[in-house]
Amino acid sequence: MKKLFGKFSFWLAALVVLLSTSFVLLNVATSILGDRYSLSFDLTANSAYKLGRETKEVLANMDKNVNIYVMGNENYFSGNSYIVQAGKMISEYPKNSGHIKLSYIDYESDPSFAAAYPDLTLTAGDVLVTCGDKVKQIPVTSFFNYVYDYDGSFNIESSRAEEVMTSAILYVLNDDTVKVGLLTGNGVFDTSSLKTVLADNNFDVAEINMVSDSFDDCDILVLASPTIDISEEILARFDQFLKNNGQYGKHILYTTGAAQPELPDLEVFLNEWGVDIKGGTVFETSRERTYNYQPYYAIAGYEDNEITDRLRDTDSPMVMPIAKYTETLFEFKDNHYTETLLSFSDTAGIRPEDADDSFAARNATEWGPFPAMILCSYRVQDKETPEGYRQSSVVVSTSTHMLDASILQNSSLGDMEYLIDLFGYLTDREQTVTIAPKTLGGNALGISTSQVSALGVVLCIVIPVLILAAGIVIWLRRRFN
């Protein structure tokens, strides 16, 4: 009996040692694998903690080494759920590419690190993405979209961590940079939201005073709804910019709006490019083609062209708020071409500028369809270019309020992606990413007005009627059986 008990004790001790060793080895292996691969499961509705398909494609095509430096320790991204999510997203990049190395830097106690970047002002939480000599600094505030409360305070509305990080990686990998000049002066519209969107998508963006600054080194100029007419001298500089000493390849995005006054000199310039600013405000009579049932927030339709082919989702509504009635003067004239990129439907009408509060839809002066965005180009033959011609363009948007933060930052709308793809198309730029912001709370339904109406009918009429009918059938069967 003692001999049997002794054998049992030996095997029990051996089992305990074996299990203990196995647990230690398992923890070590998990720790090592966790640093290199993602071992967690993301059960959120929009996979908020995992890299998306577009990012994985970018990482799979990398052939250069990229360093990600976080100004702080690994515990910096803790507390608020969105802060945690941003930290998790950053940690996913080295797990999905052997070309990426992630480091946490105590830059305050390591002055040698800050000395390597003398042109940057580093603060806690900043992220530096580097490849060779190219550096992209990302302030921690850039990882999020914000919503302001009635008392002036703001809260995080959604996370942009993946979009910002992937765009930064593309920026340091790319040798070619597209420079966009946001023109100031003459009472132009505030383009700060557009500046943020373009900068986050790797465009080199700068504000340029159209009177005193040179814009010859820019690829694209943005003239957003000036309220003071443009002088002939500045318009002549626009012509010189677009001709580019015979090289062409330059572009101007001009946006107008219903509240903009008449600008005779600028309108003559646009006439030469094939656009006529008529005046009056676009409204929609079809509720299915409005945003939030607002008739002056009309949804424009995508025309079949190369820009539309770049879009991920052509079902995302393109909202053109408070648009100004505009028409094309010709399709082709003296090497000038016009092409409609976006258009309002045949249920859209025009409210005259002199209309009073008694205006009704039946009093509209014009009915659609008519253009919402127009591409005006000037082409010269050149056998050395792939297309066989060189081209400069003036793009006219009938809506300036499409540049509002509430429109550009709305992930259910297509305005932000369309503008990024438009700029990429104009400059022959292929590598752009547009990743939708991710929410950790309840997701807003990204549906159109027509879908809202259909959903309302189903929930308020169809389903209650079916439940009532089922109840009557059950009652009748029990009553007469």
What does this structure look like?
With 481 residues, the protein is α+β, with helices and mostly antiparallel strands. The chain folds into three domains: 44-174, Glutaredoxin (3-Layer(aba) Sandwich), CATH 3.40.30.10; 177-426, Class I glutamine amidotransferase (GATase) domain (Rossmann fold), CATH 3.40.50; 451-481. The chain is built from twelve helices and 20 strands. It has helices at residues 2-36, 53-60, 81-96, 111-115, 161-173, 192-200, 232-243, 264-272, 306-310, 405-408, 415-426, 449-480, and strands spanning 66-71, 100-105, 127-131, 134-138, 144-148, 154-159, 179-184, 204-209, 220-224, 251-255, 275-284, 290-291, 294-302, 318-321, 324-328, 332-333, 336-344, 348-351, 370-381, 389-397. The strands form four sheets. Strands 7, 8, 9, 10, 12, 13, 14, 16, 17, 19 and 20 form an eleven-stranded mixed sheet that branches. Strand 3 (127-131) and strand 4 (134-138) form a beta hairpin. The longest helix has 35 residues, at 2-36. It is globular. The termini are far apart. 35% of the residues are buried. Residues 37-46 and 442-446 have low confidence and may be disordered.
